[in-house]
Amino acid sequence: MKPIPGAAPASAPELTRAQDRISYLYVERSMINRQDNAITIVSKRGTAHVPATAIGSLLVGPGVSMTHQAMVLLGDSGTSVLWVGAGGVRLYAHGRSLATTTTLLEQQARLVSNQRTRLDVARAMYAMRFPNEDVSRLTMSQLRGREGVRVQRLYRDHARRVDIEWDGRRYVRNDWGSTDPLNQALSAANACLYGAVHSVIVSLGCSAGLGFVHTGHDKSFVYDVADLYKAATSIPTAFDVAATTDSLEIAGAARRAVRERMWDLRLMRQCVRDIKSLLQAPDDDPELVVMSLWDDKAGTVPSGVAYRDPNSEEAREFSEWEATW
Q1: Cβ neighbours, 10 Å, residue 122
Q2: Same domain, 126 and 247
Q3: Is there a contact between 14 and 53 (Cβ–Cβ < 8 Å)?
Q4: What is the distance between the alpha carbons of residues 293 and 320, in angstroms, rounded to a whole number?
Q5: Distance spanning both ends of the chain, measured CA to CA
Q6: Of 5, 61, 169, 241, most Cβ neighbours within 10 A?
């Protein structure tokens, strides 16, 4: 039984609540590594072991080197990592969206919060998979059933195409080696697709967790969008790789092959266009970001303005103070 390579991420019960974490830890002129579920900070003064789940934010100052495994642990633990100047005075970089407005995020939240509009978007997602069919009157149950048949047909057709035995989709999260090479190839290819789609969603400023078809998971919208492209990317790639690659190299071969297929299909560009279309956003979003203030009646009002009711007691007191000044 061959385990999945790499250390397993911490489960939710093992993660310290945000309210119970150290607010931040500043580190400079040190080497940050990983040992089990703790990060090790090595400097001239010695070595310190810090539980990754106990830190809210890690401020990385000058002279710090950090290993890949340390970043993996910090990411799995939900710890924010910020690159700062000496003493933590300046902030140079941190994980953030490429978007400069919340337009898409607010639109996503509006659409997913209303049952009618959520159903409209979900139907639009299924319509992209059935381009020659009218799905506007189908229920979610009917759409799921039709999608299940479509995917099973894809598996069967590709198995025949490459002349390989297909015995159903199986994925055992904690036991990578218990599945056959074809299922391993599918899992590896899907993981790459999820990562690419996730990066687009985050870059656009959308929420990865607000899904329209999937729900209850922090990557629900990732799975929604990725399902649009599996038939053209991960599924055919996995069958091609499984038919031509030694089982010991199956995961690496699947990753490289699906990357090439995504590049050929210009998937990242297509993904951006599709997300904007599904969220009913204009393609020509303005570059200039205008900060506004929310108003319960007007919607938004300009920021940077000193709003004051001239008839209020505070305004009268301020006018009197100005007169005496």
Answers
A1: 22
A2: yes
A3: yes
A4: 29
A5: 82
A6: 241
The burial class, CB within 10 Å (0-12 / 13-18 / 19+), for 198 is middle
Q: Which two tokens stand for residue 31?
A: 């080497």
| Dist CA 267 CA 87 (whole Å) | 42
CATH code assigned at 215: 1.20.120.920
Same domain membership, residue 107 and residue 75? no
Q: Which of 94, 115, 143 is the last residue of a domain?
A: 94
pLDDT score for 271: 92
Q: Which residues pair with 48 in a beta bridge?
A: 41
Contacts of 245 by beta carbon, 8 Å cutoff, 6+ apart:
181, 185, 253, 254
In a domain, 283, yes or no: no
Chain-centroid distance, C-alpha 179: 27
Domain annotation covers residue 231: yes
pLDDT of residue 92: 82
pTM strictly above 0.85: no
Q: Which residue has the tokens 């799921």?
A: 144
The structural domain count of the chain equals 3
Residue 47 lies in a domain: yes
The pLDDT, as a whole number, for residue 293 is 74
Last residue of a domain, one of 94, 115, 139: 94
Same domain, 175 and 303: no
Ranges of residues in the chain with a pLDDT under 70 are 1-15, 18-19, 95-96, 176, 282-291, 303-325
Q: How many other β-carbons are positioned within 10 Å of the β-carbon of residue 65?
A: 12
Q: Indicate whether 116 and 30 sit together in one domain.
A: no
Determine the Cα–Cα distance for residues 59 and 41; give it in Å rounded to an integer. 13
Query: The tokens 């400097």 sit on which residue?
Result: 43
Closest listed residue to residue 104, CA positions, set 214, 207, 213: 207
Q: What local confidence, expressed as pLDDT, does residue 235 receive?
A: 95
Question: Is 169 inside a domain boundary?
Answer: yes
Interatomic CA distance for residues 203 and 197, integer angstroms: 10
Query: What pLDDT, on the 0 to 100 scale, is given for residue 285?
Result: 54
Strand intervals (E) in 95-251: none
